[in-house]
Amino acid sequence: MQQADAPPVISIRGLEKAYASGHRALNGVDLDIAPGEIFALLGPNGAGKTTLISIVCGLVTASAGAVTVGGHDIVRDYRRARALIGLVPQELHTDAFEPVRSTVAFSRGLFGRPADPKLIERLLRDLSLWDKRDAQIRELSGGMKRRVMIAKALAHEPRVLFLDEPTAGVDVELRRDMWALVRSLRGTGVTIILTTHYIEEAEEMADRVGVISGGELIVVEETAALMRKLGRKELTLHLAAPLAAVPPELADWNLELADDGRALRYRFDARAERTGVPSLLAGLARAGLSFTDLDTRQSSLEDIFVDLVRERRAA
Question: How many CB atoms lie within 10 A of CB 274?
């Protein structure tokens, strides 16, 4: 559970990253992440997601700005800050010939933590890896290798877990298993930051969503609030008889013909005091049009993301 009124476990201020080529991967990012929060970072390829994670984890040096993890500056107090972090990178980096249990236990030792066979066993059981504990990494499927990476990241009991595209290349069943694991980790107080291309992943799990584009955070909002704030609805009217064009008397509603003229689509702001739906239905009656059925669809987080990026590029 997210801890109310607790200081942020991660605090990012004015973070920038520019390369010698002139490319600016990050441009003045400010972000606080609360203890016990699940935070999803969404953005297209090249938006700056992995660069941001890599700087916080000490893998890439920032050009400007400051980051603290658990109150420890990632530059001045690198070891303490890094010890609080578990990272599951996008790429699968493991020793192909190392047994599963050994590689997970070794990761714990890298952080100076004492051996704890019971903890390693629990991790492997939670990740459905116990039956593969003596198998070499090269013998595992891609989904199982991803689970090993998560076990390695958790072996030293971090307070913060970064998941960079955690379910890329994983089938639907394993993806849902990982969602359950993430929720259980949050239940123990672990803060989770994930990047994902799967919009439903953020919508399903995240407390808050940050949308990054062109190296800038263009919105940070609670997931449900973002849906309410920016979500639109689409009303589809299935017509009794097909139309060749939208009648002129219905032009004010910006209707769209669909399904070869057998349906009319109307998009409206679900937050608006007046949605225009009642007057649209009255307008249909005046135009002599009847419909056999209607349905509505709420904008998904993907729709919202596409609209935000489009608005940003147009500005």
Answer: 9
Distance CA 56, CA 51 (A): 9
DSSP helix/strand/coil, 111: coil
Domains in the chain, please, with CATH? 10-228 (3.40.50.300), 232-298 (3.30.70)
Residue 220 CB neighbours (<10 A): 17
Band (80; pLDDT cuts 50, 70, 90)? very high
- CA angle in degrees (0–180, nearest 5) for 312-42-124: 175
Instruction: Quote the CA–CA distance of 100 and 152 in Å, as a whole number.
Output: 9
Distance of CA 1 to the CA centre of its chain: 18
* Exposure b/e, 2-28, CB count within 10 A at least 16 = b: beeeeebbbbbeebbbeeeeeebbbbe
Query: pTM for the complete prediction?
Result: 0.77
Q: What is the pLDDT of residues 224-255, one digit of tens each?
A: 887 766 667 889 999 999 999 999 989 888 89
DSSP H helix total and E strand total for the chain? 10, 14
